[in-house]
Fold this protein.
Amino acid sequence: MRLRGRRRLRAIALQILYEIDIMDQWESYKSVLKNAFERERINREEDKKFIENIVICVINNKNVIDTLIKRSLKDWDFERLNIVERNIMRIGTCELLFSDEIPYKVAINEAVEVAKIFAQDGAPSLINGVLDRIAKEKGVKK
């Protein structure tokens, strides 16, 4: 499946966050970004900025985001989430709470669609429910 547009950029941001998370390189993310841009042939500054904004949003707000995700999980333990699912939820939460340009429904839908490609079978509905609860708790407009 060939991804296009912003969904492709979100998928690249997910890959970057996966690498940062698995290697615990939250402070030294710039080299991971640079390598990903080269590997994925991201040349447009607009695309680089979109990806970088997602990655930096997650890094700068990780503790707040993780707390919201933990509170919004129903019958599931945060530590049981795999790295892919956790980072898809982090990206979705960033877009819900910290991006004025991404509508509520688009943020959740994009997270669900990325989960359909990269996460386990039950993950899209789990991610949808968690992000919906976070949006409602924080009063994000529909």
In short: The chain has one domain: 5-138. The domain at 5-138 is CATH 1.10.940.10 (N-utilizing Substance Protein B Homolog; Chain A). DSSP finds six helices and no strands in the chain.
